[in-house]
Write a structure and sequence with these properties.
This protein is mainly alpha-helical and 162 residues long. It has helices spanning 16-26, 52-55, 65-76, 79-86, 105-124, 142-150, 156-161, and strands spanning 91-93, 99-102. This is ProQ/FINO family protein.
Length: 162
């Protein structure tokens, strides 16, 4: 796959959902980490390679490591995080949120490919929010359920049609 874009599309800002994912990480730690967005509109910053080694020691003593792995995974595998990594001039950041190094072209391309795959998945299964739902099937009485089971699973409407 060729690189989908070569120009910067501006800073990728956090939504309320991104902030919620960041809060899930911070609640597991003894102190907040500044690389994560704290409110909607904050910039999403790509993590430095090996940042896990800096975050892991901050885990609260009573919290399992797997909880932290799941929380960070939810944040790092989000569409907006991939978008932030895919930018041509994206930089990796340390725990304090300071830029350290640019993302490699390979990492940017991988993020662009993941982003494209997420978009394809969403396009294949659109879920319109305002589409009316079909009404629930009519509730059957206990007697009707017993009759249906005695008739070998045939629908009651089949029996009534005879």
């Amino acid at each position: 796959m060729e690189e989908p874009w070569m120009t910067n599309r501006g800073p990728i800002v956090a939504t309320a959902l991104d902030v919620k994912k960041a809060e899930a990480i911070n609640t597991l730690l003894v102190r907040r980490i500044d690389i994560l967005p704290s409110k909607p509109g904050d910039v999403i910053r790509p993590f430095a390679l090996g940042l896990w080694n800096d975050i892991r020691p901050l885990l609260k003593p009573d919290v399992p490591v797997m909880s932290l792995r799941r929380a960070t995974s939810a944040f790092l595998h989000s569409k907006r995080y991939y978008f932030a990594c895919a930018q041509p001039d994206s930089m990796r950041h340390d725990v304090a949120g300071n830029p350290i190094e640019p993302l490699s072209p390979e990492d940017r391309l991988a993020a662009q490919e993941r982003l494209a795959a997420l978009r394809q998945t969403q396009a294949k299964s659109p879920v319109p929010a305002n589409e009316p739902k079909s009404p629930p099937p009519p509730a059957l009485s206990k007697a009707e359920l017993i009759r249906a089971s005695l008739l070998g699973g045939r629908k009651l409407s089949d029996r009534a049609a005879r």
